[in-house]
Inverse folding.
């Protein structure tokens, strides 16, 4: 059985909201007074869950609450959750830039954390000088950096500029150099935040792969990302956090599906929940949303290339001179796949006060998989001001089969999200 | 698996006295690279480069000589005024640089500290060392000017035996500056009031540190002035170079004890702050 290299017990972190001021000072004083009398910190008993949308009753908030799990050697552990779930706080605590409020953790081996690329880069120093400085800040010794120096430079691909101050670098070169240093860290445990977001999935894979290679197998990596594609490709295990609380640790694919399903607005009976809008005004409001088949039945599954109908109602409270209504399809990991706007065919439309019913007919040209939808209305008399915008409403699964046939979609050819028909010709010459 | 030995165990509270100097030693390469950064980065894109290290104290000495010696006519104890002020300024600058730079350890490095862990003491130590390098360059200028007066005049009578204590005197200044700097940097993480306080306290302290006048003309306030460890050191250095000044073993001993106690307090406060200052900085 592989060795446990990280063990986390009841880790919690409390933060104080608001500014540091005289009030903080009185709280500090109160804490100190309690401590003198041998009592427990009074502020540990209070504190809200970390939910940004609700105004809490307390000035203190738990960014992390009772997190316990362990990581085995060689695991590549993904950490997922919405913004504010506590992912970054967890990484901060594990990389020792701050202490937990309650709880403890134990680690075996050297830890290198990469919460940012190019930490400590000095703009006036040359690439060469910065490699050494950055490497040392990340915990490498000078001899380790020297040993890897040529490889770092080659990996970064900025040989020509190595003696130029990094402030003259393009942002791409800067990141490549910074990343090259990080990729050559020789610690047993590597903590990586969203930093890799600078590159595409392939670049991320190359970098993490490089990190795993450098000191052979058996490296443990903790990886936070919002990019589910990257998490799926890289992590063999995943931790799912929600509002600072631990939900589950387990197999990546399962947890990603669970996370993505929770991230979506449920539109039971076609009604859109009142608080569903990402952005809203009083001027316009989407009320209902339905996906229908040709027989006007509500559906959540589509055959590949099936025709389907999108229906929604829109309430207008103030007249809009130049309205544009748009509808988009996206993958669950937030990649827009298709957008259609009402003005495309018919030009800007003026809308009076009242309730409108809109209908859009489409072919399911998406490749098999799960998709969710986006609705928006904008006023172009008012420089495109968004009046109501709803993200990730509803879900449909596109099947691998065409309707009424056994013709199977060749999944192995499914690059991208949409199939565009084209006419191939082939001639022997 | 009871026999497991963990390399890192992190709990909310750690012992105040656990300084982890071993870990600091592990990061010695980082200290040296930071020293190199401090020195080289500061003079990048300048034509005169490190020459500025010479020029700064020279210009200030000229200004001080004109203002305080020729205009205000402050008695410099038979030491040629240029030499008098150069000695005072060279060592005062070292002290004040150590103090003000270490005092901003947390606030000016917050962006690095928030992303990467390394023993935070690395930064103030690198500041002390890079300032020692600057001091040694300025010391050469001082030696040249001192040699000129030694040959040209017969008013200065250096004490070569006591010169052996110079390194100790310099360390005394370094650690005194470091201690106050560490304390201030720890306090400023949460309440920035101390930043403002420090700026003018350092300015005022110069007037109480025998930089501008010799301790011998302070009359009944002499004891008070000499209780300032910086005065004791600057006076001692003047005595070594010129034979004029006060090389007082009791005051220096007192300065050493004060500095040691301050340093201990500073390390404890710093140690406590470095663990979680990211939440309040």
């Amino acid at each position: 059985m592989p060795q446990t290299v990280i063990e986390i017990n009841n880790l919690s972190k409390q933060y104080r909201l608001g500014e540091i001021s005289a009030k903080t000072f009185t709280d500090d004083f109160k804490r100190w007074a309690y401590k003198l009398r041998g009592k427990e910190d009074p502020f540990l008993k209070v504190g809200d869950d970390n939910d940004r949308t609700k105004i809490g009753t307390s000035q203190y908030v738990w960014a992390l609450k009772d997190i316990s799990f362990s990581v085995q050697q060689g695991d590549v552990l993904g950490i997922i959750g919405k913004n504010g779930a506590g992912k970054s706080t967890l990484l901060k605590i594990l990389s020792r830039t701050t202490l937990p409020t309650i709880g403890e953790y134990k680690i075996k081996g050297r830890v290198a954390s990469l919460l940012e690329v190019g930490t400590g880069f000095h703009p006036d120093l040359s690439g060469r000088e910065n490699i050494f400085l950055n490497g040392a800040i990340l915990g490498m010794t000078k001899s380790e950096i020297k040993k890897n120096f040529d490889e770092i430079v080659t990996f970064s691909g900025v040989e020509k500029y190595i003696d130029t101050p990094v402030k003259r670098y393009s942002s791409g070169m800067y990141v490549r150099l910074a990343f090259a240093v990080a990729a050559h860290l020789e610690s047993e445990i590597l903590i990586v935040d969203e930093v890799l977001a600078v590159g595409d999935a392939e670049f991320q894979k190359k970098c993490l792969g490089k990190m795993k290679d450098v000191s052979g197998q058996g490296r443990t990596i903790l990886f936070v990302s919002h990019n589910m594609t990257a998490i799926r490709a890289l992590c063999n295990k995943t931790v799912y956090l929600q509002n600072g609380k631990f939900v589950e640790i387990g197999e990546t694919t399962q947890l990603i599906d669970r996370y993505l399903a929770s991230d979506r607005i449920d539109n039971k009976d076609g009604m859109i929940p009142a608080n569903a809008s990402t952005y809203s005004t009083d001027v316009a409001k989407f009320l209902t949303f339905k996906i229908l088949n040709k027989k006007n039945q509500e559906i959540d599954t589509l055959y590949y290339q099936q025709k389907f109908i999108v229906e929604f109602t829109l309430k207008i409270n103030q007249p809009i001179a130049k309205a544009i209504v748009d509808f988009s399809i996206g993958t669950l990991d937030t990649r827009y796949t298709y957008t259609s706007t009402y003005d495309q065919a018919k030009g800007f439309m003026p809308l009076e006060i009242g309730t409108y019913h809109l209908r859009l007919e489409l072919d399911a040209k998406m490749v098999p998989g799960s998709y969710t939808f986006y609705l928006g209305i904008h006023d172009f008399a008012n420089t495109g001001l968004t009046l109501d915008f709803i993200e990730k409403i509803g879900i449909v699964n596109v099947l691998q089969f065409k309707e009424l046939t056994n013709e199977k979609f060749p999944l192995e050819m499914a690059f991208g999200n949409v199939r565009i028909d084209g006419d191939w010709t082939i001639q022997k010459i | 698996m009871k026999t497991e030995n963990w390399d890192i165990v992190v709990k909310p509270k750690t012992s105040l006295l656990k300084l982890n100097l071993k870990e600091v030693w592990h990061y010695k390469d980082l200290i040296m690279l930071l020293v190199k950064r401090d020195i080289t980065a500061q003079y990048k894109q300048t034509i005169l480069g490190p020459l500025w290290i010479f020029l700064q104290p020279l210009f200030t000495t000229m200004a001080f000589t004109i203002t305080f010696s020729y205009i205000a006519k402050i008695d410099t104890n038979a030491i040629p005024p240029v030499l008098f002020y150069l000695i005072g300024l060279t060592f005062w600058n070292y002290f004040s640089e150590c103090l003000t730079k270490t005092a901003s350890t947390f606030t000016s490095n917050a962006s690095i500290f928030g992303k990467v862990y390394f023993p935070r003491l690395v930064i103030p130590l690198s500041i002390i060392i890079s300032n020692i390098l600057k001091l040694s360059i300025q010391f050469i200028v001082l030696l040249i000017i001192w040699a000129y007066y030694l040959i040209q005049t017969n008013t200065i009578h250096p004490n070569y035996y006591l010169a052996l204590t110079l390194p100790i005197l310099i360390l005394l200044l370094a650690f005194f500056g470091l201690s106050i700097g560490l304390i201030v940097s720890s306090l400023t993480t949460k309440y920035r009031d101390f930043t403002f306080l420090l700026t003018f306290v350092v300015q005022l302290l110069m007037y109480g540190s025998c930089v501008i006048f010799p301790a011998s003309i302070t009359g009944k306030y002499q004891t008070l002035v000499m209780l300032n460890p910086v005065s004791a050191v600057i006076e001692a250095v003047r005595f070594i170079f010129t034979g004029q000044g006060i090389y007082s073993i009791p005051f220096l001993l007192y300065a050493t004890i004060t500095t040691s106690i301050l340093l201990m307090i500073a390390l404890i406060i710093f140690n406590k702050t470095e663990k979680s200052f990211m939440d309040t900085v």
